[in-house]
């Protein structure tokens, strides 16, 4: 598998704080291809009510407008980090609220829940709330009493966070050499010889960028998804968010930190091949699970289950 995946999952530098855009579009396309027409139509109808629907359309050359909106919506929670209509709590004053939105906060803490690797794993000391948001957003989408605007706000978040839950370093952190929590590997410096022009980075960014170039779209996105889904077919039942985060935590414990205790760790060929394998598998799992969750929330009334 290594050659095919290595050639598909090209590494690029990009300061990011989640699976990069390629990762989110890969996961979203895997899910989209597994949805029934009824779910697709219901999802597209809701995305059309989102204030950024036209921006998403303008950004894509995809002739299928519904699919384009779905794929572009998958990166919206990261896009708003650089969007001046939004603000970061504690650093700026609230900005005017778009019609129907709950607020305009960037919600940086929704993307992760860093459970410490050096303590009992259920310990919850993270400022991140990814675990709770996955459940809360599904509830909003299920609730017919919520307005279209509220549900249109929640949908890109749900698409995005199912992806983030599968990035191991969005569910774990450990104490660095200075004894301080490393914020999901953000404070762990590394040397990555497989990215010759940008060897020096941090461990979190290294993992975020493994899915490929952030501008991955169209034919190359489709061929990447085809290769990934044949390498990693859906195997287990989709499960629930708590299980996805638990798997991420366990992966973080055994496979996401290069061995050694130096302040700056170096990525070996063996570690890099293993990281690419884990990334491909997790992107696939995220896609299958996102499809399952969206079918539950948007499928025909008879199939709809709103207990998540
Ligand atoms: Zn994210």
Number of strands: 5
Bound molecules: zinc ion
Poorly predicted ranges: 1-16
| Morphology | globular
Number of domains: 1
Q: What would you say the CATH architecture is?
A: Orthogonal Bundle
- Specify the CATH class: Mainly Alpha
Main sheet strand line-up: 4-3-5
Order of helices and strands: HHHHHHEHHEEEHHHEH
Notes on the structure:
- The chain has one domain: P1 Nuclease, CATH 1.10.575.10.
- 47% of the residues lie in helices and 4% in strands.
- It contains twelve helices and five strands.
- The protein has helices at residues 2-8, 21-33, 37-47, 53-59, 65-73, 76-79, 130-142, 148-164, 203-208, 218-231, 241-255, 269-298, and strands spanning 115-116, 172-173, 189-191, 200-202, 264-266.
- It is globular.
- Zinc ion binds at residues 18, 77-78, 111, 160, 164.
Question: Any descriptors?
Answer:
single chain, 308 residues, mainly alpha, P1 Nuclease, three-stranded mixed sheet, two-stranded parallel sheet, 12 helices, 5 strands, globular, binds zinc ion
